[in-house]
Amino acid sequence: QVQLMESGGDLVQPGGSLRLSCAASGNIFHINRMGWYRQAPGKQRELVAAITSGGSTDYGNSMKGRFTISRDNAKNTVYLQMNSLKPEDTAVYYCNAEVWTAWDRRDDYWGQGTQVTVSA
């Protein structure tokens, strides 16, 4: 089994910054893609950012230029630096990881979510 532990969600003022972290632990052979998704009340879950083990990144359109995803492969940890936060960034942020637990077994795992609230 694999667990994803998220941290860093908080209440922040518009224009502020936050850094989210997500550490994967458990029976891990290799993690390919790690990323962050978010879901605001009444809206569908959407991609925030993702990064492969090789460092290739992908961002949601409204996050480009404000958010930066990074990763420490040795620690199985992914980070999301969020700058210039806006009220519309308010959501629950979920960590996601594509994990190989054996050479022939790959599954998607999700964290429990961390709340980010942007408000004055």
What's a quick, concise take on this entry?
The chain is mainly beta.
Report Rg.
Answer: 14 Å
- The average pLDDT value, as a whole number, equals 96
Q: Which range best describes the helical content: under 10%, 10-25%, 25-40%, 40-55%, 55-70% or over 70%?
A: under 10%
- Biggest sheet statistics: 7 strands, mixed
- Contiguous low-pLDDT stretches (5 residues minimum) are none
Class computed from helices, strands and strand pairing: mainly beta
Helical stretch tally: 0
Shape: elongated
How widely separated are the two ends? 40 Å
Strand content range: over 45%
User: How many β-strands, per DSSP?
Assistant: 11
What are the secondary-structure elements, in order, as H or E? EEEEEEEEEEE
Keywords:
120 residues; mainly beta; 0% helix
Can you put this structure into words, describing what you see?
- The structure is a single chain.
- It is built from no helices and eleven strands.
- The chain has strands at 2-7, 11-12, 18-26, 30-39, 46-51, 57-59, 67-72, 77-82, 91-102, 105-110, 114-118.
- The strands form two sheets. Strands 2, 4, 5, 6, 9, 10 and 11 form a seven-stranded mixed beta sheet that branches.
- The protein is elongated.
- The model has no long low-confidence stretch (mean pLDDT 96).
What is the secondary structure topology, with strand pairs?
Blueprint: E1 2-7, E2 11-12, E3 18-26, E4 30-39, E5 46-51, E6 57-59, E7 67-72, E8 77-82, E9 91-102, E10 105-110, E11 114-118
